[in-house]
């Protein structure tokens, strides 16, 4: 069955290569379709519940519609449950084939809009076809923007050498994301670091065509964390996908050491259950869009440990934005965007190394910091720089809407 699915996948890919080549030729004869809808369509990859879908596509689409600018979001599989079921229940090549065919149809549909925003990658989990679909979309539409909030090239460990016969037949690209950046001409990125990445990757890049927009929140209507009274057993907290649990693991030795003197617990809001041998209590809460805010407010002190590598440097700091937007005093590794968000000791804390992590956490546990003032400053920082309202005009101007 796997061999049959792989064969069908190969034939399907080459059929699409032929179809897109013909359509690109016809486009060169007929030109770009006029009378497009004055609006924006997002080509998202993840299901509705994903944070990227919510905060870099869906919320902006809602705001655009509220400002009388037509907008919609298209993804491949709407719900996380269906996405996981579809991904796990089928042979991988079957999943990728279905995904690729649907995305091709969405590209044709999206061309009715004046502006297309591609979220992260046009084909997620699919490095086959040597970016044929990106090349097709960019040929038939003259205003396509690539939006990303992570260094995806580092996450994919690019460049990778393609050794398998199947990979070569399928035109697998071991440098997919880097090469896709070279194709696009307009970008929305989550940090100044990612802007520099684009400039360094794409020669002769005009900086005016790169917009830095953080992954924003809209917590202004919510009450902030209350620091007038704290529980006897304070709660350190972390939120994120289980693929990033290894980052949280880096500070477990510090927390274990502190547990010899102090009583606290760790709350992990994530995907799969977080099970580790620790000298302190660990509580796990499955992430849910419906309960996200309620669960975050159970945290007394937000944690964002990172490793000083290219992958971590490319992160958008969204954990911090969430914590601090709710007035939660936070501690983060002093890496790239974290240093932009945090004024050390004023609105939260930066730790350069393991020793500083332990010193800061100890100060907090011994109540030697002004939590109420830091909480207010954290909230104000996010309100001024990292909300949808504070970035709206910049966003609209870039889209020329």
SSE order and pairing:
Elements: H1 2-30, E1 37-43, H2 51-66, E2 70-74, H3 80-89, H4 92-110, E3 113-119, H5 132-140, E4 144-148, H6 152-155, H7 165-169, H8 176-183, E5 186-189, H9 192-201, E6 210-212, E7 235-239, H10 245-249, H11 252-258, E8 265-270, E9 281-286, H12 292-296, E10 301-304, H13 310-313, H14 318-325, E11 329-333, H15 337-341, E12 349-351, H16 354-365, H17 371-385, H18 388-399
Parallel strand pairs: 1-2, 1-3, 3-4, 4-5, 5-6, 7-8, 7-10, 8-9, 10-11, 11-12
Helix pairs in contact: 1-4, 1-5
Brief account:
This protein is of the alpha/beta class and 401 residues long. Helix content is 46%, strand content 15%. The protein contains 18 helices and 12 strands.
Give me some keywords for this one:
Rossmann fold, 401 residues, 12 strands, globular, six-stranded parallel β-sheet, 18 helices, single chain, 2 domains, alpha/beta
Report on this structure:
The strands form two sheets. The protein has a six-stranded parallel beta sheet with strand order 2-1-3-4-5-6, with helices on both faces. A six-stranded parallel beta sheet has the order 9-8-7-10-11-12, with helices on both faces. Helix content is 46%, strand content 15%. It has helices at 2-30, 51-66, 80-89, 92-110, 132-140, 152-155, 165-169, 176-183, 192-201, 245-249, 252-258, 292-296, 310-313, 318-325, 337-341, 354-365, 371-385, 388-399, and strands at residues 37-43, 70-74, 113-119, 144-148, 186-189, 210-212, 235-239, 265-270, 281-286, 301-304, 329-333, 349-351. The model has no long low-confidence stretch (mean pLDDT 92). 38% of the residues are buried. Helix 1 packs parallel to helix 5. The radius of gyration is 23 Å and the shape is globular. It folds into two domains: 2-216 and 388-399, Glycogen Phosphorylase B (Rossmann fold), CATH 3.40.50.2000; 235-385, Glycogen Phosphorylase B (Rossmann fold, 3-Layer(aba) Sandwich). The protein has 401 residues and is of the alpha/beta class. The longest helix has 29 residues, at 2-30.
């Amino acid at each position: 069955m796997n061999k049959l699915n792989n064969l069908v996948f190969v034939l399907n890919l080459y059929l699409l290569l032929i179809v897109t080549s013909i359509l690109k030729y016809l486009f060169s004869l007929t030109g770009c379709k006029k009378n497009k809808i004055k609006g924006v369509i997002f080509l998202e990859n993840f299901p509705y519940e994903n944070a990227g879908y919510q905060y870099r596509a869906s919320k902006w689409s809602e705001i655009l519609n509220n400002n009388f600018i037509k907008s919609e979001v298209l993804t491949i599989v709407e719900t996380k449950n269906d996405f996981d079921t579809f991904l796990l229940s089928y042979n991988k090549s079957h999943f990728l084939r279905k995904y690729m065919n649907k995305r091709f149809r969405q590209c044709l549909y999206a061309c009715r809009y004046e502006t297309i925003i591609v979220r992260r990658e046009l084909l997620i989990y699919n490095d086959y076809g040597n970016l044929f679909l990106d090349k097709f979309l960019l040929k038939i539409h003259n205003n396509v923007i690539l939006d990303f909030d992570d260094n995806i090239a580092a996450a994919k460990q690019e460049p990778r050498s393609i050794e398998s016969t199947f990979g070569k037949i399928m035109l697998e690209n071991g440098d997919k994301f880097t090469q896709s950046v070279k194709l696009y001409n307009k970008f929305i990125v989550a940090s100044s670091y990612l802007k520099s990445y684009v400039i360094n990757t794409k020669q002769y890049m005009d900086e005016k065509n790169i917009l830095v927009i953080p992954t924003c929140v809209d917590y202004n209507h919510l009450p902030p964390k209350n620091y007038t009274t704290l529980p006897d057993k304070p709660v350190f907290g972390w939120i994120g996908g289980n693929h990033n649990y290894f980052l949280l693991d880096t500070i477990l030795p510090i927390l274990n050491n502190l547990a010899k003197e102090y009583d606290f617990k760790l709350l992990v809001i994530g995907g799969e259950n977080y099970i580790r041998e620790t000298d302190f209590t660990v509580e796990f809460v499955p992430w849910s869009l419906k309960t996200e805010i309620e669960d975050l407010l159970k945290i007394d002190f937000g944690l964002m440990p990172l490793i000083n590598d290219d992958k971590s440097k490319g992160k958008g700091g969204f954990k911090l934005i969430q914590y601090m937007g709710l007035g939660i005093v936070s501690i983060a590794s002093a890496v790239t965007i974290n240093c932009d968000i945090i004024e050390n000791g004023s609105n939260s804390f930066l730790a350069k190394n393991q020793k500083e992590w332990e010193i800061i956490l100890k100060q907090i546990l011994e109540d030697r910091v002004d939590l109420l003032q830091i909480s207010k400053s954290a909230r104000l920082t996010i309100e001024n720089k990292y909300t949808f309202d504070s970035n709206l005009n910049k966003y609209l101007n870039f889209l020329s809407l």
